[in-house]
Amino acid sequence: MLADSSPVGWQRYDDVTTLVHAVCDLIEARLHEAIASKNEFHLVFPGGRSVVPVLEELERRCIFWSGVHLYMTDERCVEVDDVQRNDRLVDDYLLSKIDTAGVTFHRIPAELGPEKGAALFEEELAQLPVFDLVILGIGEDGHTASLFSDSLVQEATQVLSVVDSPKPPPERVSLGYGRLTSARERIVLVMGEGKSGIVEDIRAGDVFPVTRVQPDTWFVTADAYGM
After folding, report:
1. Rounded to an integer, what distance in angstroms lies between the CA atom of residue 30 and that of residue 35?
2. Global confidence as pTM
3. Closest by alpha carbon to 186, among 150, 212, 165, 160?
4. What is d(CA 186, CA 183) in angstroms, rounded to the nearest whole number?
5. pLDDT of 127-185, one tens digit each?
6. Is 175 helix (H, G, I), strand (E, B) or coil?
7. Which domains are delineated in the chain?
8. CA 82 to CA 100: how far, in whole Å?
């Protein structure tokens, strides 16, 4: 990690590799703590390919996954075998390569459409405890999960149906602010120079969907953090 005076909550790393190792160290530590204290760990992964190096590093580690419950922050309303599905990344880069005995993957039934998928997933979450750790991505426009600027007013929502996403496909199901902010811990992955503009705006105090989720820690590469 860079030696600097980054504000509290911002962790800067020289490159993606060191950032990913730090994130996986945190995941592993929180997993062990939760299993030791309550025999279960509820972990949420972000959609999009920014999570791939994290999944690859987790797969390489000798982690005992029994008792772990996995979720996605959001899902695209496409068929279950569609390559655009977010949960396909977790399947391909993690679950297909580890011992999944005792692992529960709570998939968002987005293939049923945004309204029905959101309603069914909200019913399922109502029977489950709060998340232990939520890992979030961030778009260059400040969105996270499938929470875009027009969703800022829906702060108490547990699960959100999205019908007009500015990024294709337009129909999605997303965890809402209410469910995300209730998590025990929320972190954001910010990687690459292309994110430097939004990081600058956030550090200046501008409000975006990702800031409304109230992250505890920002894991950011030096090129994204800027000066």
Report:
1. 9
2. 0.94
3. 212
4. 7
5. 999 999 999 999 999 999 999 986 655 667 899 999 989 989 999 999 999 999 999 99
6. strand
7. 10-225 (3.40.50.1360)
8. 22
